[in-house]
């Protein structure tokens, strides 16, 4: 149903006069009459009964007039919703992350939600080593991860959201009395517990150091994830390397102590990754909010 024809009908019915309705819209009466005739043809009903002096609604015309305002408001609402979706003010944004990354993105997601309250934002906690694949395969629009874990893939793009660095973490009563910062040899002299889903440059450097300078004790033990590594650290079974900001916000730091690291590549970027060909407006708006 043509929206303008419906508005013409509404004003003819309101004025009970074709001439006054035509004046309201600044069009000729014959043009208005054609629009009404086309509307009647489209609906398959007669809307008005008129003679030389009077214009009256038919039963069908009365029904349409009683619901006309509702139809027009609904029509306008639909188009407002379409415009909002086109501008990214509504719709859906699916984000993947892991539990411990909350410190890196919580504030920016909260800012986006307040700026776009009609966008449905979902955030799922998935295994760390599945973050990149979830974007490549289109399961999620955006994922938060670490720069050294982003694979070389022409389909992926990334934007930095903050820097962090690895520190050595151990219980306060752990029997280490060596220097701070710790050298690679200091680390490898301890029992080092690492989650097996991460492979930062610092860990590669330690592997090289192990090959070049074998130590009698210590070494690197791999466990399932960061939570398991921290559980073992908390039990005094060794020490681990963990990003400083993530450690200070995701775990109870009252029972542990940190040591800085020397002679190792400790710094890295937290990044948001997405598919280059994803032109969904909600995603583009989120990326704009990150960069602003």
Overview of the structural elements:
The protein is of the alpha/beta class and 292 residues long. It folds into 3 domains: 3-86, Orthogonal Bundle (Arc Repressor Mutant, subunit A), CATH 1.10.10; 91-162 and 269-291, Periplasmic binding protein-like II (D-Maltodextrin-Binding Protein, domain 2, 3-Layer(aba) Sandwich); 163-268, D-Maltodextrin-Binding Protein, domain 2 (3-Layer(aba) Sandwich). Helices cover 44% and strands 23% of the residues. The chain has 11 helices and 11 strands. The strands form 3 sheets. Strands 3, 4, 5, 6, 9, 10 and 11 form a 7-stranded mixed β-sheet that branches. The protein has a two-stranded antiparallel ribbon with strand order 1-2. A two-stranded parallel sheet has the order 7-8. Helix 5 (102-115) links the parallel strand 3 (91-97) and strand 4 (119-125). Helix 1 packs across helix 2 (18-25), helix 1 (3-15) crosses helix 3 and helix 2 (18-25) crosses helix 3. The longest helix is centred in the N-terminal third of the chain and has 28 residues, at 59-86. The two termini are 43 Å apart.
């Amino acid at each position: 149903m043509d929206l303008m024809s419906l508005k013409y009908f509404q004003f003819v019915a309101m004025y009970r006069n074709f001439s006054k309705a035509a004046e309201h819209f600044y069009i000729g009466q014959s043009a208005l009459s054609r629009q009404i005739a086309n509307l009647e043809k489209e609906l398959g009903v007669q809307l008005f009964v008129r003679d030389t002096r009077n214009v009256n609604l038919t039963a069908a015309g009365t029904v349409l007039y009683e619901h006309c305002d509702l139809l027009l408001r609904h029509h306008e609402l639909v188009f407002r919703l379409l415009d909002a979706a086109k501008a990214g003010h509504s719709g859906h944004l699916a984000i993947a992350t892991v539990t411990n990354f909350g410190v890196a993105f919580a504030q920016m997601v909260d800012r986006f939600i307040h700026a776009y309250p009609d966008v449905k934002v979902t955030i799922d906690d998935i295994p760390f080593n599945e973050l990149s694949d979830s974007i490549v395969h289109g399961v999620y629009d955006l994922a938060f991860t670490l720069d050294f874990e982003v694979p070389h893939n022409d389909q992926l793009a990334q934007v930095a959201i903050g820097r962090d660095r690895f520190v050595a973490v151990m219980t306060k009563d752990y029997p280490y009395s060596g220097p701070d910062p710790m050298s690679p040899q200091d680390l490898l002299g301890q029992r080092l517990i690492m989650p097996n889903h991460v492979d930062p440059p610092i860990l590669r450097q330690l592997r090289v150091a192990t090959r070049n300078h074998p130590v009698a004790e210590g070494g690197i033990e791999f466990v399932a994830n960061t939570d398991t590594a921290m559980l073992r650290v908390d039990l005094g079974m060794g020490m681990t390397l963990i990003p400083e900001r993530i450690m200070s916000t995701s775990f109870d730091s009252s029972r542990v102590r940190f040591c800085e690291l020397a002679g190792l590549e400790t710094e890295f970027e937290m990044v948001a990754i997405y598919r280059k060909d994803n032109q969904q407006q909600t995603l583009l708006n989120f990326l704009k909010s990150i960069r602003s």
